[in-house]
Structure formats: C-alpha cells, structure tokens
Amino acid sequence: MSTDIKSAPIDTTSAAQLAQNGLRFDFVDDTDIEAFGYWFQAMNRGFLEPRASDESIDHRRRAFGSRRLTGVWDDAGADPKTPIATASSWIADLTLPGGRSVPSWAISTITVAPTHRRRGIARNLLESELRTAAALGVPVAILTASEATIYTRFGFAPAAMATNWKIDVQRAKWVGPTPDGRVHLVPAEAVRDEGGFEILERVRLATPGLIYFDGILWDRLFGIKGISDPDQLRVIRYDDAAGTAQGFAVYKVNEDEHAAAVDVRFFVAATDDAYAAMWRFFFEMDLVTSVTASLRPIDEPFQWQVSDARAVRKNHEGDHLWTRILDVKSALEARRYSAPGAFVLHVTDALGLSNGIYLLEISTAGIASVRSIEDPEPYDDNHSLALTISDLSAIYLGGVPVSMLVHAGRIRELSPGSALATDAAFRSEVTPWLSIWF
Ligand SMILES: CC(C)(COP(=O)(O)OP(=O)(O)OC[C@H]1O[C@@H](n2cnc3c(N)ncnc32)[C@H](O)[C@@H]1OP(=O)(O)O)[C@@H](O)C(=O)NCCC(=O)NCCS
User: Contact at 8 Å (CB) between 383 and 344?
Assistant: First the structure.
C-alpha cells in the first residue's frame, strides 16, 4: 500500500466529467495561505458556518496540512478564487475486532455550494476519493455523515452507532462500584499535553470503530483559543490506586437561575474502575439536575449502575461511523473473528471496485484468509450469502447483525443457517464506537 497521498494524481475520470461542465477539479496548495483561506471559507460556508476569522486561518492551515485537499472551481463564476466544492482526505488507522487495525481512507469536508448543487459534483468528488484510495491500496474508506441519505449509493454503510444520553441525576442515584483510585479536577493542559493522549490510544486500540487522530482533532476536545472557547470546559482525570492515569473526561456546565446541567463532551476510560469513578463523579455533583453526553456507545454500563434505570434515557441513537470496503480480501483479512467457518460471499458493487465471489475461510484462532473464486459450485457445502458492498461494510465491524439485514431483505441467505453462522463469526466482543466527528 502506498501512503504518499499527496502525490497521488487528481482522478482523471472526475476531472474530465467536471471539465465537461466548465469546472476545474484541482488540489489546494496548503503551503499557500491565501489559497487555503479561500478553500477553508468555502468549506465553512458549505456547512452553514460563519466566516472564520482571518487570524485563525493559519492555525487551521497547519491543522489541515497532513490532508489531501481538493476543490472544484468555476473559473467563469463571479468569485473564481473561491472553490464551489471542497473535499479532504487522509489515512487513519481504524480499529477492528480482535484489537487489529486497518489503514482507512478518511473522507471529510465534502461540500458543494448551494449555487451548484445537484449537478453531480459531490458524486465526482466522492467517486474520485474512492478510486484514488483503491488505487493506493487502502482497503477501507470511512466518513461521518451530515445526513444519512447521501452515502449508501456510494457503497458506504453505518457500522458504528452513537447515542446521546440524558440523565436525570436527581433520580438516578449511583449504586455502582466505588473504586479505590481518585478523580482529580485538573487543568486541561495536564491531560492534553501530559498523558491523556496515551489513555486515548489504549482505548482506541481496544475499540472497533475508533480511529487514530491527533493535531486539531485532539486539541479541539479541550477547546482552542480563537476557534472555540477553552475557558468554558473543565477536565477530570482518574488515577488508579497505584497512581496511574486511566481515564479522563471533558465537560461543560450550563447554568440557569435554578439549576445547572452538565454536558459531558468527551469521556474515555481504559478500565472499568476509571469508568465507574468518573461517571459517579458526574452523577453525584451538587447543584446539578441533569447530565447529557453525546456521541456515546449504545451500550453504556452506567444504565446498570444507577438506582433508577428509567432516569437514564437515550435522546437519540443512530448512525455515526460509515465504512466502505474497497478491497474485500485485505479488509476481511485485517480483522479477527469470533468463530470459525467457511463462507462464500457474492458481493455486488455499483461502482465496480469490489464485485466478485469471495471465499472467506476463518480458522479456529479467528484468523481469516480470503480469495476470489470464479465458480461457487465446489463450495456448495459452505455458508453462502449474497450482499452489496454497502451491506458487507455495515457488518464489517461486528456491530450490525447479519441476520437483521437478512430480515430487512438486504442480505440474501443462499444456504440456510448462513446468517446465524456469519453473525457468530463477525460478532465483536466490544461494541463498535467512534468518539468524534471528522
Ligand atoms: C450534500 C452535498 C455535498 C451534495 O452535493 P451535490 O453536488 O448536490 O450532490 P450530487 O449532485 O453529486 O448528488 C449525488 C447523489 O446524491 C444525492 N444527494 C445529494 N445530496 C443529497 C442529500 N442531501 N440528501 C439525499 N440525497 C442527496 C443526489 O440526489 C444524487 O443521487 P443520484 O446520483 O443517485 O441520483 C451538498 O448538498 C452540500 O454541500 N450539503 C451541505 C454540506 C454537507 O452536508 N456535506 C456532506 C458532509 S458529510
């Protein structure tokens, strides 16, 4: 796999299609602050954000420096320096079941100006990203989506869900464990610059769906002066009885005349003790009536650690991390499986990147080998499914049951019992979760 993402050329298919409509598809030179500024402001406008301050542009340029930045320009338009469409991408390690990981093509900042919408510009951007990633040998693409209606047609599917919780802490008394370690209130720098990242890394490597991130994606968890307000955020850290930091959380207090509400912005715990101690801290804060936490896993143990489970509610649960397998063999061989078996997968891919019949053989150790086969007949005794690349991408992290997609009429079981057997193999011990937007 080549990782030199910036020197990979602009996709000629998309460039030619856009050129037919008088549009220019090109790179953004991130060493040119003026060109980056136009691109960044176009992206902000696309997401309905206000203009970024001129002072913040250089900081943002450095933060985007490791990405491949592209745009589409309408040179005949009234504002030819500002791109009418934006995209960016980079390679991020994505954790898979079994503590494994795979390089994934992270796609972000896809916008098209309202003046140019629904003419196939986003399609050209998306397809070019997928073709470029596939040509570089990156097995999987990932994104987080502003709307759930856009990306299935490109072969993506939600593979890790997220929940927003609202907890009535006046009703929900803590009845879970009281760990021996200590929760400390600390300055943000004590976690941001000294050891917090190491905790996050331990959690990332154990949790399918989490991706490696640093730079601005890490710094923004703690607020960034001039961009978001760090003074509104507070940070706790849990040190175990031996004094080792095992978790941290970032929160904000919203107060009105009568009550305070705590919003837990980010929470990671590398041990069950860190988890219990830090949630207990939030459940037992004086003056606070409610606690909210968004982008959390769908199966929080705290539901079982309170006196009144009905005081803990899910406000929202839905798609969060979308995956798109580009190379079936490399993607499926990268993860570990929970049960052995042999499976014939008839995969269809509307973009033509991964069509084929694949034999997936999983050993008793949970290690897979995958090969393409021309004729499935000699493998008739094996489990067999017909599915789109989007459905294979949905089940990839082990959080979406195959049998559910069979009942939904999306995956077709070609031999009886195949769905249950695939579920047993693909199931992940740890529920897939992604902790950030990107
Ligand atoms: C979403 C967005 C990028 C689409 O750009 P676009 O150039 O109008 O999209 P295209 O014309 O290339 O459409 C491609 C396909 O997606 C569909 N589509 C595009 N936007 C859609 C939306 N918001 N909801 C549902 N379908 C959508 C189109 O109907 C088209 O379908 P088809 O090719 O199967 O017929 C653009 O509307 C936008 O910038 N929105 C605001 C920012 C945003 O939400 N970006 C996505 C970040 S995850």
Answer: yes
Residue 44 Cβ < 6 Å to ligand 1: no
Question: Exposed/middle/buried for 286, CB within 10 Å: 0-12, 13-18, 19+?
Answer: exposed
Mean pLDDT throughout 35-40?
Answer: 97
Give the separation between CA 195 and CA 189, rounded to whole angstroms: 10
Q: What is the pLDDT of residues 328-347, one digit of tens each?
A: 999 999 999 999 999 999 99
- Which of the listed residues 39, 108, 112 should we mutate to test ligand 1's pocket, taking the one with most ligand atoms within 8 A of CB? 112
Tell me how far the alpha carbon of residue 78 is from its chain's centroid: 36
Give the count of alpha carbons within 13 A of 390, CB side only: 13
Task: Round to whole Å and give the CA distance between 243 and 182.
Answer: 8
Contact 22, 76 (CB under 8 A): yes
Task: State mean pLDDT over 250-256.
Answer: 93
The angle subtended at Cα 144 by Cα 228 and Cα 315, nearest 5°, is: 75
Catalogue all structural domains in the chain, each as residue range(s) with its CATH number.
Answer: 12-138 (3.40.630.30), 163-318 (3.40.630.30), 327-426 (3.30.1050.10)
Answer yes or no: are the C-beta atoms of 435 and 266 closer than 8 Å.
yes
Three-state SS at 332: helix
> For residue 170, how many other CB atoms are within 10 A of its CB?
12
Closest Cα to atom 18 of ligand 1: 150
The whole-angstrom separation of Cα 217 and Cα 202 is 17
Give ∠ CA 238-243-244 in degrees, rounded to 5: 70
Two tokens at 155? Answer: 């072969």
Q: How far is CA 158 from the centre of its chain?
A: 9
CA distances from 214 to 66, 201, 427 (A): 11, 10, 29
- At 1 the pLDDT is 76
Whether the CA torsion 24, 29, 35, 37 is positive or negative: it is positive
Q: What residues have CB less than 8 Å from 16, skipping those under 6 apart?
A: none
Q: Whose CA is nearest to atom 26 of ligand 1?
A: 150
Name beta bridge partners: 361: 342, 369
